[in-house]
Write a structure and sequence with these properties.
about 375 residues; mainly beta; 18-stranded antiparallel barrel
């Protein structure tokens, strides 16, 4: 870790001495003070990743100028060791040959609207390596990206990195891509749509849909003024391959699989803020059971000077007889933000069970 910090610090000093660049970085650690449950007592834990999915990075470093910049960051894969402190996971370089066009190579990203209290909770998310172009026409925004090959529901196995390969079968010749656009109407909101191949269509809280999808069409409407009452609705129609483990052109043909949607509402009244999100999944592929799943999450918080106490209820698995309740407080110590909470997980599918934990998160931005 000291080696990484030293390299980043040296790069920052060199860059600022030669070019007019903006330098920013962050380091984040997550852990737990204690966890108590049936036949369970655990005390003091420190993770290089967040098993709750509320954060992505162990560390991140950004360099930005007027016409070019770069991002380097890392996150743990959750493999139980500390390799995340030594290895770079993702990197990208961007440039702006003209003001209205931004080109990114390396790690590229595109996602739909997300809740403000959970910026990671996007209905459609593309995180690939490849090439991306973003066009800015004021109220009209257009993005397009090309990733690697599409190799089935669990993504790229690393055997081939070409976006198009004639040796593949049927639609598998065509790699991962997305094309999306949005238009903002003053006083009304933003309307957006995208076509995605290789995207993850999995709003936060619905595990089991983490793999790539061969095709997803998404539309959304959002009215999200900062710090004011706001809302959005996001709907994605997801397709699947007839037989993703097959080997013929017919196997890789597409058919409708499911409809996934996310509804969000945010309410402000003085120092009080309430966030509510509902996620709905409907299977359309003719299965006989489990065709419908609905879940929710809400968070209420009240700002008291530098302290923000909150209550957060996780009901994504309410239909599976499980509920999570978190009572916490966020506060700053200098440049370090600390989130300390008491997490209670309830389950009543068979026997009633309760697990109580005390998670803690440290984030340093500089």
């Amino acid at each position: 870790m000291k080696k990484i910090v030293g390299i980043l610090s040296a790069a920052a000093v060199l860059a600022t001495s030669v070019f007019a660049l903006d330098i920013s970085a962050m380091i984040q650690l997550d852990g737990s003070i204690a966890t108590f449950g049936k036949d369970t007592v655990k005390v003091l834990e420190l993770n290089p990743w967040d098993p709750q999915g509320t954060s992505d990075y162990v560390w991140r470093f950004d360099v930005a100028g007027d016409q070019a910049g770069a991002t380097v960051y890392n996150y743990s894969k959750g493999d139980g060791n500390n390799v995340a402190f030594e290895n770079v996971a993702e990197w990208s370089i961007w440039l702006k040959p003209i003001d209205m066009l931004k080109v990114t190579v390396g790690n590229i990203y595109f996602g739909t609207q997300s809740p403000r209290f959970g910026w990671w909770a996007k209905t459609v998310e593309n995180a690939k390596y490849g090439f991306q172009c973003d066009l800015d026409f004021g109220p009209l925004q257009i993005t397009a990206g090309l990733g690697g090959p599409y190799q089935g529901p669990w993504g790229d196995d690393g055997s081939n990195k070409y976006w198009f390969d004639k040796d593949y079968v049927g639609l598998r010749k065509l790699g991962q891509f997305w094309v999306g656009g949005s238009y903002n109407v003053d006083g009304i909101g933003t309307f957006g749509a995208s076509v995605n191949r290789g995207a993850a269509v999995n709003p936060h809280g619905f595990p089991g849909f983490l793999g790539s999808t061969p095709l997803a069409i998404d539309v959304y409407y959002a009215n999200m003024p900062w710090g004011e009452t706001s809302w959005f609705a996001d709907v994605a129609l997801v397709f699947k391959e007839k037989n993703p483990w097959g080997g013929t052109e017919e196997d890789f043909g597409l058919e409708i699989e499911r409809l996934t949607s996310q509804l969000y509402f945010e309410f402000h009244l003085d120092a009080f803020t309430l966030y509510v999100v509902d996620v709905l999944n409907v299977w359309l592929d003719g299965r006989d059971n489990d065709v419908f799943k609905d879940g929710f999450e809400l968070k209420g918080q009240y700002a008291l000077d530098s302290f923000i106490p909150y209550v957060q209820i996780n009901g994504y698995n309410i239909m599976d007889s499980a509920l999570g309740v978190r009572l916490g407080v966020g506060f700053d110590v200098g440049a370090c933000n600390i989130d300390l909470a008491v997490q209670t997980d309830l389950g009543w599918a068979d026997d009633f069970g309760v697990t109580v934990g005390v998670p803690i998160e440290f984030t340093l931005n500089f």
